[in-house]
Specification:
The protein is mainly α. The chain is built from 17 helices and no strands. The longest helix has 51 residues. The protein is globular, with a radius of gyration of 23 Å.
Length: 468
């Protein structure tokens, strides 16, 4: 059993996957530094101001750039080399945290944190869009699981390192170490090579905002993507309720203090990490669609146990269980998007869906506080469990849609068409939209022959990445 589990992750040691190994190491290092600094900034700002309002402003400043920029700059992730995008993202993070030790006003700290959020908005969509090109279809689920595991390991360790680091070293040193972690990640990414995308998309004659609209149109019109967005949104509302009410659940309903809350959160975070690691085996037995469905039921069961638990002990069991379900679901979600979307639009779709879901996170966070005060934490967790069951029902819908479109859930394939291929898979909504837009552009060029050369030249310049 253990040997089979180990073989799944042998991808890390394979010579042909050196590029993925560097991407994984870079992601782990930068994520660990980011989450450590994220909590260090919150702790330092609260110690300086003794105000929860400033902490709220800080969280808002860190979250909003990702919401806006994921929508606005999504096409750039596919039109520019992804390697360059991720390196620039890391360098931007290094610059922000390198400056932060010299910024002392609360407003200045929030402003620099917003710039760091701006830089980070490019990295994650480009990373997940690139994974199928680095490892191929056979290992893509395992690769997704390892990247997710690295991020969640950083989330688990970040608060501990931040607390200890501030006590022993001070916040300025923690910020500086994070800046160094970004530089190290950028150095690793510089050695990955050019395999992060099949080609740099060259959509002649299309403006940036037309590309933005095309991305939204794809999410809205493609049955599978719109279903994924609906599922992800329901789950996000559930998780925001869980995150806001968990401290009230542990301190008031369970009757434990801050230490008990920390133990509860640690069990849920450990469950997520375990879920990431067992996801490939889980998906291998149930398929990615069956695994996605099961993850919602596992998570809902864990949340229900926490909601009715009389004490912290049983609550920690529920926390670990819903963490496992969440970890499996995260891997399935990423894998499904990679399967549905072709390579030359994948980064944008990850960015758009991520931004839309972050909007639901803002809405859910604003609503969960008053709701918790009105009906109590147990009821909020019960409502969250009900939302997750609705998510399970929606996963049944997406499987039915895939069957109706002629896609067999038991043996999914990753379609990585050539950028110039246009509409060679008519069943895919993206190809239909892209083909239609290409026909419109060709018609316009045919009607104005004198401007063909000028228009083509301008289009080629638009798709060329900026000088480094």
């Amino acid at each position: 059993m253990l040997s089979k589990f180990t073989v799944q992750f042998s991808i890390v040691g394979m010579p042909e996957h050196r590029s993925y190994r560097k991407l994984l190491a870079g992601r782990l290092i930068s994520a660990l530094g980011t989450w450590t600094a994220f909590f260090a900034v919150r702790i330092a700002l609260y110690n300086q101001t003794n105000s929860a309002w400033w902490v709220s402003i800080l969280l808002f400043a860190e979250l909003v750039p990702g919401v806006i920029l994921g929508i606005a700059v999504g096409p750039l992730i596919d039109r520019w080399p992804r390697q360059r995008m991720m390196i620039l993202s890391d360098l931007g993070g290094a610059a922000c945290f390198g400056v932060l030790p010299f910024v002392h006003s609360p407003a200045g700290i929030c402003a620099v944190s917003a710039l760091a959020g701006f830089s980070a908005a490019f990295f994650r969509p480009a990373c997940y869009a690139a994974i199928p090109n680095l490892v191929g279809e056979k290992y893509v689920v395992t690769a997704n699981a390892l990247i997710q595991g690295a991020e969640n390991l950083a989330t688990l360790m970040g608060p501990v390192i931040a607390g200890v680091g501030i006590v022993l070293l001070g916040p300025s040193t923690v910020y500086t170490l994070n800046a160094v972690s970004f530089l190290f990640s950028a150095l690793l990414l510089a050695r990955v090579g050019s395999r992060l995308q099949s080609n740099v998309a060259a959509r002649i004659g299309r403006t940036h905002w037309r590309e933005v609209r095309a991305g939204f149109s794809l999410v809205r019109r493609d049955n599978q993507l719109s279903s994924l967005f609906l599922i992800w949104s329901w789950a996000t509302l559930a998780y925001t309720g869980i995150n806001v009410a968990e401290i009230v659940l542990t301190t008031d309903a369970y009757g434990v203090g801050s230490a008990g809350f920390g133990v509860f959160v640690a069990f849920s975070a450990a469950g997520i990490l375990i879920g990431n690691l067992v996801a490939p085996s889980f998906i291998g037995r149930l398929t990615v669609y069956g695994g996605y469905r099961a993850s919602f039921l596992i998570t809902a069961a864990g949340v229900t146990i926490c909601a009715v638990s009389p004490n912290l002990t049983l609550g920690c069991v529920g926390a670990a269980l819903f963490g496992v379900g969440n970890g499996i679901g995260l891997v399935c979600n990423v894998t499904l998007i990679q399967q549905v979307v072709a390579d030359d639009r994948r980064g944008q779709i990850f960015a758009v869906l991520g931004s839309l879901v972050q909007m639901f996170t803002l809405i859910g966070t604003l609503a969960a506080g008053p709701l918790t005060m009105t009906v109590g934490p147990r009821m909020v967790w019960g409502i969250s469990a009900a939302l997750l069951v609705i998510g399970y029902l929606n996963t049944i819908v997406i499987s039915a849609l895939r069957r109706s479109n002629g896609v067999e859930p038991a043996s999914p394939t990753f379609v990585l068409p050539s950028i110039e291929a246009g509409g060679e898979t008519p069943g895919n909504a993206f190809n239909r939209i892209a083909t239609l837009l290409d026909e419109v552009e060709r018609t316009r060029e045919a009607e104005a022959p004198s401007g063909i050369g000028r228009r083509r030249s301008r289009g080629a310049d638009e798709t060329r990445p900026p000088p480094s």
